[in-house]
Amino acid sequence: MLRENDVVDHLIKSLEVDGYIIKQALYDKQRGIDVIAEKQGSVLYIEVKGATSGDQKSRRYGKPFHSGQVFDMLSKVIFKALDNTNISDYNIKKDRTCIALPRADLFQKYHTKVSRYLIKLGIVTFWVSENGSVTIEGNL
Q1: What is the C-alpha to C-alpha distance for residues 129 and 7, in angstroms, rounded to an integer?
Q2: How does strand 42-48 pair with strand 134-137?
Q3: Could you list the residue range(s) of the whole structural domain that residue 53 is in?
Q4: Per-run averaged pLDDT (10 residues), the chain, 140 residues
Q5: Based on the structure, what is the number of domains in the chain?
């Protein structure tokens, strides 16, 4: 089961293979934009969520998040992605705000309800699988 740190690790490996330079990768309780990657003057600002708690002291550690938790996390990650467009360095013509999520049934269920609107808003979704593969939904 993918923890947030696992999603970050798989995502940055995939981005590097695609020629991106990782400017920032935050883990666990670090605050800020989780991943910032740049390629040919275009910047990706990426907010990340995992499928289980990464805190070994948590009662949820190693257990999948339940429906309410996934709904809450997805709502927050979308808000944060939208808020990232307010960063003073954000250039609406060439930069992208993104989210990275574990490829898990509940995340996909809730995401599907809003995916066409995310695409209209220019929010790109990276789907990260446990085997490390990453697929993209939206336009980079």
Answers
A1: 8
A2: unpaired
A3: 4-137
A4: 95 98 94 97 96 78 88 97 93 95 97 97 97 96
A5: 1
